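Response to reviewer comment R2.3. The reviewers asked that we include at least one raw input/output pair. We reproduce the pair for histidine kinase here without editing.
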Amino acid sequence: MQHSKFLELEHEDTLENVERIQNAISTEQKYIDRTAHDWACWDDTYKFIKDRNLEYIYKNIQDQTLAGIKINVMIFVNESGDVVYAKSIDVNTSKRTKLPEELLSLVEDGTLLTRTENETISGFVLLNESPMFIACHPILTSNSKGPVRGTLIFGKYFDEALLASFEDATCYSLTMYRTYEELPADVRSQIKNFSDFPDRPIIIPENEERITGFFELEDISGKPAFIIKADFPRTLYLNGERILNNMYFFLLLTGLMTGMGIKFALDRLFVSRIIQIDDFVTRVRSDKDFSRKLHLKDNDELFRLSKEINEMLDEINLAEQELKAQEREKKVLLDSLNELVIFINPQHKIIWANKAALEYMKTDLQKAVGMSLKDISGTSSPLSDSLELEQIFVEGKKKSVEFTSVDGRVWLVQAIPVTEDNGKIIGILETCRDITENKATETLLKEKQIAEAANRTKSEFLANMSHELRTPLNSIIGFADLLYEQVYGELNEKQLKSVGNIYKSGKHLLNLINSILDLSKVEAGKMELYYKQFELANKINTIKSLVSPIADKKNIQIEIDIDSGLSTICADEARFAQVMYNLVDNAIKFSFENGRVKIGARRKGDMVEITVSDTGIGVKPEDQNKLFKPFSQVDPFLSKKYEGTGLGLSLVKQIVKLHGGYVWFRSKPREGSTFAFAIPIEGKRDSSENTD
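Raw output as returned:
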């Protein structure tokens, strides 16, 4: 029985680990779908399909653009099914690659084409090179209106590099098989036919050290696309085996000592010690207290047996504590939910309830177990039998309703049948969520939309902002480049220098706009830093050159003071410049005319501390807690006077933190502010040493 419990616990733990991997793959598909939808529902794309204006391609579909959004293939198809424009790149090198012929064949036969406003295609297609994520969306206007002008197709290879990124994210070893025949022979012998693959992943213990989970991913037609194998260590199994072996050893020793007891039956002292052992084992078994210790005197076999018993009890106690810890983790997780959660058996009796449910029912778990819902809460509670639980036990289908209690609160009540491996329903997990406030403004939103609303709003804002700002900047950069190349005629040296400055500044602004999306990358843990050695003074002087035109308009002097002992530092040069530009630009923006901005750099132990001070409007004490929050500015009135998205300081803090550093500031109203950050001179140090 103990062995089977360990195996069952190991199986459930492995299923949870496999589900984490499936969620990571699903998240990647959702990202491609959102990106394709953003590009497809854009007025410029809608016009491009009709007039095929090359300026759209030059401004918006550069190789670096696809590499930036991590998309390998982009195909524009008009309503007649003809390819208007297509591009394929290597996202790692930003170099052009050949379009897969199999993908073009799917376009020609109409498999990847959408024909109505609400039709989308999402999933995988199998190509000779590797499987590919596919997202196909109808081309509409920015307000998602038709008529449909065609289909925009985004593709991303599910290659070894992407698989490796999933391994890094989940910390598990993953292997991809394109067909059932590619599976190892010993696996095929256990999984007879992958076409009968169940909804849940298949778990196979390979040996004593490793257990494997297999799950199948389908293509866009619903057919098997490829198989993912995930390997996990068998920690629970090995612990269980060790405990069971100790138990067997204990039983064996007990048998041997019993035989020896017969030989010395006349020895009263020996018999009394045997009785002492028996009483001890009986107490442990009845009290289930494995922390007890057996104390026997004399250095003989019974004494050594007592030591073995104590060691065995220690291991059993440790295993029990581990199991209890896991149970506590699950209980803490459920008790931390605001939702009311109860588990009901087929007789409609409560088996378990979380903290929120018990507080709502004004009782404790001991009293609640065994009671029916109506006995505890009556018919005016969301926990009452409003979902017709008997019907759910018969049909085995998930059900949800909205319930209005007598106090006017609106609840979303959901019942999920819980089944054994054989499909028998053993109970119902019922959850009740208070949606009164949400109902007042969004009565038609489902429970899933409530959980994702904030994130979706942020993503749509970032996507819209990136398009609206990229387009004019790309135009400025493009025309400045043409002027610099003297396509429209010759320019003198001073003009060339000015046009060059326009081009450089435009490129820098484009990079800043791209950092709007960087905040989302940081929050998702996807931003990577590329460390290199660079001259600190040169980089700060470059920043000064970029912001000098802005400072000159307000007659603001920019002073630089760098310790003579500081020469080079090791950091992400582009991100360092991004932080410096944000701080210096803010200092100029909020300074009075004829003011002064001072940039300082000094060594602080093994770190370099950069300070940016101004003589500007400063920040009121009551507004200082709003700093470093994304999309937040200290004063709505000032946000109209001074342009900005409210992202700058938040992104500064996140980038510095990624470098292993920290940010601080001081400010007085009407006297000015000083913003500073410190990062390791020789690259990122251990995050445990950081101070924030």
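The chain has five domains: 1-233, 237-332, 341-445, 455-520, 531-689. The chain has a mean pLDDT of 80. Further pairs are available on request from the corresponding author.
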